[in-house]
Every structure is written in structure tokens, then in C-alpha cells.
Amino acid sequence: MKLRNVLNTKTPKSPLQKKGSSSIRIRNSKWLSFPYILWMIGFIIIPILVILYYGLTNTDTSLTLDNVLAILDPINLRSLRLALGLSWKSTVICLLLAYPLAMILSKAKNKSNFIVMIIILPMWMNFLLRTIAWQNLLERTGVINTVLKFFNLPMLNIINTPNAIILGMVYNFLPFMVLPIYNVLIKIDKDIVNAARDLGANGIQTFLKIIFPLSLPGVISGITMAFVPSLTTFVISNILGGSKITLIGNVIEQEFRVGNWHVGSGLSLVLMIFILISMAIVSKFDKESEGNSLW
Q: What is the DSSP code (8-state) at residue 144?
């Protein structure tokens, strides 16, 4: 019986064996990323290479920087400045609205999932339809002005103005600011907050010294996710601006529409610089985010 028990006893695996098996599992799991790699090559890398080709060449396929330097044209430069200004204003408004909401959601344990679903629900609708809906609301004969006129209140003349574009940006991109901040806040250890309060910190000190620094990666991610689409948008300015306010996205869209791919691609490369700067900032403040080390 003792000999049988000894034979049936499993020999514990050495740390080297465990490490080897885990490395095999990691190696095998990497093969699952190949469909995404193929997708990324076909729909991200190749289009970027096409933009680079058209942006750095002219009609006779010779290298040139004239397409990129077209951003220095007074009209294009004014459009870029206006786009940067409106984008930053909408991003700041999104941050001021999203952070308190994210804090409320992080503390609402039972109803947080339902409220998050309500925030995400409009995103299930087409982006264009959501923007057209705001156009119908803000028009001089729209729903809001009809209600104000019924109660003999001053009319709201906001359509076809920069304020209408900012409103559309905030409405469409606010969820992209709320979700990253909310995901970071719910991961903050409550014992750290309680320890700060036990040591005599009040609510403002706890927020400035503990909560906000720990939530900074989510804030940076949210700022990037709201700023980049605001900077490159052209649909919102076309619909809510009435094509009277031209952003750099509208200029690029018009260049491609008339078939001038070279100038359109060159201006797109300028916007790509801002996107790369935003990604660099995110990678600096969010080094521990998941999925950074696919390979």
C-alpha cells in the first residue's frame, strides 16, 4: 500500500516547468491576435501609407512638401486655429461635466450600471442622425424656439454659430470623457481615501492630493478621446454651423471632394501630428494601461 501511494503521488512541478508552461500559453495566445493584426494592416497601416504617399508627392509623383506647407495658407491656417480653439473649449466643457458625473457614478454602487447604459445609449444611434436631431432642436423654427415662443420667452439664436458647434461636440463626445474617468475612479482603493480622511484631510484636500492624481490617467485618456475627434470633425460644423464656419476638417473634406488628394493628404498629415502628440501624452501618463504590450 505504501508503494502504491508513493507511485500515485504527483511530483510537484518545479518553477522552471511552471515558467515554461506559462510562456507556452502566452506564445499560443499571441496567435489569436493575428486576425486583428491583419485588420490593422488592411484598414489602418495601408490607408496611412496612402495618405503619406499622396501628401508627400505631387501630380507627377515627385517628392514635395508643398502639400504639407499648404497649411500656412491664410484660409487654412485660420481654419486650423478655429478648429483648435473650438476643440479645446468643447474638451474643457466635457471635462467639467464628465468628472463630477464620473465621481457620482463611482459612488452609486447599485444604479451605476444603469446610468452608464443611459450615457452609452445615444451612441448606439448613428452619429449623423444625432447631429441632425440637434439641428432640428436649435433651428429658429425648431422645437426649443417653438417652446420658448409659446411661453413668450426670448428666442434662442444659436444655430449656425460656433456655440452650436461646441454644443454638438460636447454632446457627441461627452461619453468618451466620462467612461475613462469612471473606469479609473472605480479602481481607486477606498482604504487610501479613508486613510487620508483619518489623517485629518478634508474633502477638498482628499480630492486634490489623492483622488485627482490617481484618476489622472483616465483624465488624460478622456481629454485625448474628446479632443482628437473634435479637431478632425467636419460633419458637426457642416450641419450645426450651416457650412458658414469652416474648420480644418471641412477644408480637408472639400479638397478630397474636388479630387485634390495631394493637398488633402498633406493637410491630413498636419492633423496627424496633433494626434501623435496626444498619443505620446497618453502613453506618458497611462503607462500601466492594459493592452500596451501585445507582443
A: H
